Amino acid sequence: MKKNTISGERIKFLREINNFTQKNIAVFLGVDQSLIARVEKDERALSSDLAERLASLFGVRVSAFEEGSNEMPLTFAFRASDLNEKDMATISDINRIALNCRLLASLLDKEGNADENR
Questions:
Q1: Which of 50, 77, 91, 92 is least surrounded, with the fewest CB atoms within 10 Å of its CB?
Q2: CA gap 65, 50 in Å, rounded
């Protein structure tokens, strides 16, 4: 059985870089704030669904939660003194679109390089 490779410390780091609180994250994911605190202390694991949603919110792939990852989140400038659940869902959607664009661009680049080598 594969050990959980998600690092609570890494999740906390990404949360802080994005200026989110544990409460923001808990409201967005629809869980209790204590779960987020326990995840960050490596006392609890996130389900794959919650990990995917959190990755979208942070603008990273789920693999960015792994210990030793150096993937940094997408960054967009926005100003808000208090984020609500709808704001966070919008940020997540924008990040998911940007991540998909990045993936498509890398796939097209690989395809272009393969054509040049023929």
A1: 77
A2: 12
Tokens of 78: 């926005």
Q: Are 49 and 29 in contact (CB under 8 A)?
A: no
Task: Give residues with Cβ within 8 angstroms of 34, minimum separation 6.
Answer: none
The amino acid at 103: L
Q: How far is CA 116 from CA 31, 75, 109, in A?
A: 50, 33, 11
What tokens does 51 get? 């990990």
* Tokens, residue 14: 């990404």
Q: Per residue in 14-65, pLDDT tens?
A: 999 888 899 999 999 999 999 999 999 999 999 999 999 999 999 898 988 9
Q: List b or e across 21-46, with b for residues whose CB sees 16 or more CB atoms inside 10 angstroms.
A: ebebbbbbbeeeeebbeebbeeeeeb
Class of domain 8-116: mainly alpha
| 0.90 exceeded by pTM | no
